[in-house]
Design brief:
The protein is an all-beta fold and 479 residues long. 1% of the residues lie in helices and 43% in strands. The chain has a domain of 134 residues: Galactose-binding domain-like (Jelly Rolls), CATH 2.60.120.260.
């Protein structure tokens, strides 16, 4: 069996890839926490109507700004010919207010709605409305692109739920505002297969598989062969030539009978794929994200079935649906923006007597904080890794005290012993030699009798034996 070589890549404890054994501990999924002043963006301008829904937030290095494009609609419920009609909603008559707007932020938490002066609304251009020429149904900032004029990529979809197929047209932009079409459009055409994709999320460049990727509801929308929505993936070396979508996620016997997969946002993270899988309960008309992980982009681990970001309580803006965007890593935090709604269907809007809400919220997670192995309060918990090789000369841990109190965190303790593949302790790196780590930190340096240089052991094979109590271990990394 080939020796696992982790190099200097950060290692998370989300699956069993490097875990040989654990005692007195378990892996814990840590739900994202909503910020206290949610919703962070809500309708407060005449052109925003009463419903906002978000698109992906990006951070533009060139402008040093977070940018969020969001839809603004006016949903008005009325009775017509004995039936309920909702202006601005699927299948209903259009509303006067249906725009895409821009919000910007310097820190990702506090947002402004700049006067763009581009689109007239009721006699004035003092608003943050974007013109149709600047809009793409799907777009992303391509860090893999070297040509400045093409650093933004965008896709426009042609076709609806009522057409037999659909097409995607590719565009390029230097700023996300002015777009140039690809000469070979359409780059994706599902019409020959008499099918269409459901909700679609373009991942952008996948640094692990070295391709561009897209995830979609791969079941001809509501016409799934298994009568439930499911998730597929397609790949491309250049955004022009695409593979046939392959189904990668579908509900299983552990799922409720009415559970379907509506969409999935995926990001590469520390050599892994982290996905937020939208769980749609058709009987309850609710949505929430479940966190899933993969090492190859095809086979996903769904062991954490509880919501990663829970719906809000009755009466809150996000009580029925939580539609997440791709997680965004910012410094030592992970930001998860989402659209929250207190309704999902016409029936629920009727129950609310037309008082439906759709606002934009924010939740956060600490760096690497998706999953942790949690130590017991008094006695040591233990985790032993499989044998591996590494590069670098020092070891750091991302660790936090497991119990927070009003007056501060209880002390934690973490020691790391180095082992040979046969579990024999390496001289000078045993439990008694290990200097205890007793405080939280994103990059706590591991040492033995004051020494931290591990250069002589690089290339392996070694194992790590963690002893920890009152601690949450998020990750480790050689550097």
């Amino acid at each position: 069996m080939a020796l696992i070589d982790i190099g200097s890549t950060k290692q998370l404890f989300v699956d069993d890839y490097l875990i040989e054994s654990m005692s007195n501990t378990r892996q814990v999924m840590n739900p994202a926490e909503k910020v206290a002043d949610n919703p962070i963006i809500q309708p407060d301008r005449p052109w925003e109507g009463n419903h906002l829904f978000g698109h992906q937030v990006i951070y533009d290095d060139a402008d040093q700004l977070f940018k969020l494009r969001y839809g603004a609609n006016q949903f008005t419920m009325r009775r017509a010919d004995g039936e309920t009609v909702i202006e601005g909603y699927e299948g209903g008559p259009p509303s006067e207010i249906s725009f895409t707007c821009l919000a910007t932020s310097t820190d990702g938490f506090h947002w402004e709605k700049p006067d763009l002066g581009l689109v007239e609304f009721r006699g004035s251009k003092r608003n943050n409305i974007l013109p149709d020429s600047a809009l793409m149904g799907y777009y992303f900032l391509d860090g893999h692109e070297e040509e400045a004029a093409r650093r933004y990529k965008g896709f426009k979809r042609v076709g609806t739920t009522r057409t037999p197929g659909m097409q995607f047209h590719l565009f390029y932009s230097p700023d996300g505002m002015t777009w140039t079409p690809e000469e070979k459009n359409p780059v994706i055409d599902t019409t020959p297969r008499v099918g269409r994709w459901g909700p679609t999320e373009f991942m952008g460049w996948d640094p692990i598989r070295q391709v561009y990727a897209v995830h979609m509801e791969n079941c001809l929308h509501r016409n799934s062969p298994i009568r439930r929505r499911l998730i597929g993936r397609a790949e491309s070396p250049d955004l022009i030539h695409w593979s046939e979508p392959e189904t990668i996620l579908l509900p299983d016997e552990q799922d409720p009978p009415d559970l379907e997969f509506y969409s999935m946002d995926v990001i590469p993270y520390a050599g892994l794929y982290v996905g937020l899988l939208w769980n749609f309960r058709t009987n309850q008309a609710t949505h929430h994200p479940q966190i899933v992980f993969s090492r190859d982009g095809i086979r996903y681990d769904r062991r954490y079935r509880e919501p990663y970001l829970a719906r809000g309580p009755q009466g809150s803006f996000d009580s029925a649906s939580v539609f997440t965007d791709s997680p965004l890593v910012v410094g030592d935090q992970i930001l998860i923006y989402y659209t929250g709604r207190n309704w999902r269907s016409i029936e629920t809007l009727e129950e609310l007597e037309g008082k439906g809400m759709a606002h934009i919220g924010l939740a956060t997670s600490p760096l690497d904080g998706f999953v942790s192995v949690d130590g017991a309060k008094r006695n040591f918990s233990e985790l032993i890794t499989r044998s591996f090789a590494f590069s670098g000369n020092r070891l750091t841990l991302n660790v936090a005290s497991a119990r927070q109190r009003a007056w501060g965190a209880d002390p934690c303790e973490v020691r790391v012993e180095l082992l040979r593949p046969n579990h024999e302790s390496l001289p000078g790196y045993g439990f008694e030699d290990a200097d205890p780590i007793t405080t939280s930190g994103k990059a706590q340096l591991v040492s033995w009798q004051g020494q931290s240089d591990l250069g002589e052991l690089a290339g392996g094979p070694i194992k790590l034996h963690f002893y920890f109590k009152n601690a949450k271990l998020y990750s480790f990394q050689f550097a």
